[in-house]
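Reopening this ticket.

The earlier resolution said the output was attached, but the attachment link was broken on my side. Pasting everything inline this time so it's all in one place.
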Amino acid sequence: MTEKILQQGAEALIILKDKEIIKRRIKKSYRLPQIDEEIRKLRTRTEGKLLEKASKIIDVPKVKKVDEKTKEIVMDFVNGKKLSNFLDSFTLEKQKTICKTIGEEIAKLHDENIIHGDLTTSNMIYVSNDKPDKRKRGDKNINEIEEDVNVKNRIENNDLVIKNGEVGGVNNGSNFKIFFIDFGLGFHSRKIEDKAVDLHLLRQALEAKHFRHWQVLFDEFLKGYSISKHDSLVKMQFRKVEARGRYKERY
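Inline output:
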């Protein structure tokens, strides 16, 4: 089975092998070998535990194996799109929905005292739940025709709304999932400061990568995050973190 390197970062290689992802922590020549060994072992163990705990709360790749000897984490391959590359390709309304969903998911994570540590759209995978219909319009059966009529009637009765050419209902649910990846800098913490820094990192990422609508998108993220039981405290601390950042930029 051949291995294909998908990404080489400062800390690890991301490898695709037989529909699985292997995250392999690489050696650091500037560290003493014994210290390097222990650091890579500890970070492999910590990330594996974080992923396993997070999997009970939000969508993350399923961990299949954590090997401290080889410094590898083996996970399921998530077949989707890296959000950093595709967020701007959606309509603004869809982008807002996605960012609000991200806010809700991070709120769930923070309520369990899990800090991601590198919260950017580069560490999120967009997975569509839509099932493409490859049939021609003339191939519909009687049940599908009746469904089309029902949809038409519901539109006329104002039970459904149309936005950006898409039919949607109040409780129609999301047609996508966001998988969060790379918990290599993650850790457990009850500190409001650490949760606020996660928000700060995402704000910076949106401004840098998705600058056209970053403020609108971050506002939607904050709306989603409002489900957190520590919402007010985290946002208050977030404003302090932001103020510190602006002070450093000035001086």
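Reporter confirms the inline version is readable. Residues 133-172 have pLDDT under 50 and may be disordered. DSSP finds seven helices and twelve strands in the chain.
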